[in-house]
Amino acid sequence: MRFxxxxxxxxxxxxxxxxxxxxxILSELFREVxxxxxxxxxxxLEEQLAPPFRGIEIGMAEKLVLRAIxxxxxxxxxxxxxxxxxxxxxxxxxxxxxxxKKEASARGKLTVLAVYTRLMEIAEQTGExxxxxxxxxxxxxxxxxxxxxxxxxxxxxxxxxxxGIGDPTILDALSKAVAGDRSLRPExxxxxxxxxxxxxxxxxxxxxxxxxxxxxxxxxxxxxxMALAERLPTAEEIIRxxxxxAVEVKIxxxxxxxxxxxxxxxxxxxxxxxxxxxFPDIVxxxxxxxxxxxxxxxxxxxxxxxxxxxxxxFQVTVQRKRKHGVEEMAREYPLVLYAFDLLYxxxxxxxxxxxxxxxxALERMIRPGDRLKLAEMIITEDPKxxxxxxxESIERxxxxxxxxxxxxxxxxxxxxxxxxxxxxxxxxxxxxxxDVVLIGYFHGRGSRARLGIGALLGAxxxxxxxxxxxxxxxxxxxxxxxxxxxxxxxxRSRVSHRPARVDSLIEPDVWVEPRYVVTVxxxxxxxxxxxxxxxxxxxxxxxxxxxxxxxxxxEDKRPEDANTxxxxxELYEMQKRVKLAG
Length: 582
Ligand code: ATP
Prior knowledge:
This protein is of the alpha+beta class.
């Protein structure tokens, strides 16, 4: 396929405000591309060159892209920068400058694969002289592209393609392209949950058909999409729901999915990024303490006081998140990985096995030692015992407990009642914090006018329709300086119209692509006619009362990892019950 053809699709996707239309356009595209092109096309649609766990990034900041544009168009750097200031979009800058060049019509012969390969080559440049080689590579590519193609290449390189397509929409469209409807979605999703690589799923489907998809198994090195927990307000409700169950301590640190293949160890985070370099101490511990040649298991890594054995608060653990000085940090605050689940070991796929068998095998696999420990656990059917275990955990400064269904498999990529969390914050208060996606903002009034921003429009995720529904206008919780910082950040994701996957009755002053997640504390959830979360026909939706931002942008969460409409409805019910009980 010519890259120009893909660009036509990008334009159509960009123009639509309807998610269903987006789905149709994508399925048409997936039918039209060749087998060997489909993975690159899926990655480009996801605005990446490869899945995040492979850690491949173009690595070109704004300045470098502008230099490449200058080189490709033969226009002086100063003029390019001025035009960029005016237009605010590197794509439009390069498009306009190329249009002004006379030989424009000779260009436009690039194929999708050629563009993808050349972008990969740019990404792979490292070490001495790599900056110049990246600029040269991009400038050569832009010089061969037609003006409109260059527009999308420049945007992609700067991380500003903003097509706003979610994984579920891509899965649905793949199914439609092959089967004519969405019927293959569950099987495609299963494969995706096991490999976290939509490009690989698409290529397998187009190359080997459904047989290939059905043959998908977990593999060491490919992160498995993580199982997530639901919540309930009390120990009694947990036991009523699960009966006899396992109750584990809930530790607040970094979730780690560890992959071991001989001495090679890789670690992936909650959002499936490769975080191995952050944990040299854990890597060493895995080599020493795991009694299996190959294994995939999960745990929570936290800083522990070696003298007293006490777990430090999250603020200490989080210091590990840095680029430099990790080794010193590892000496000063070594981490301990509290292992809680086993997914694979020496040829055996444990994901379909019940919790009890996974846990027993995990206990056999981890040798005693200082770096890896098992998350403490009891098995009980007595709500009082759960309550006691919870209180003890809280006294030790832990976050709470996670109760687990004894006969449940590992539910990759799903949030379900097979795992139920009970946290300190639910007790006595009406609700836990919620993670919302920012989809727009309002210009400030009064004293905020000066800052150019007065409130944020927040949304939750609706899994069923793969859309974002509004739940709150958030006007507090940030310092003046933070308001300015967040505005600058949002301005970089600004879009001219409501994105196709956003469902909103409210029109903010500025729409932004759903990208950033913030944690919000609220007094309660109320019914509201102005928000679309949970709204049906004539029924009102739900809103947060007195919402305020706590902390800063959640970098470990993608927009689809925000809380969901379903969870808000559950919290609303939970809040009613707590109110009645109080
Ligand atoms: P979530 O990860 O569920 O989207 P979140 O990031 O807000 O939500 P929490 O609600 O605090 O996190 O709880 C879930 C997290 O708790 C897990 O992702 C995991 O990192 C952590 N955790 C700690 N101990 C355990 C345990 N024993 N079993 C499972 N998860 C645990």
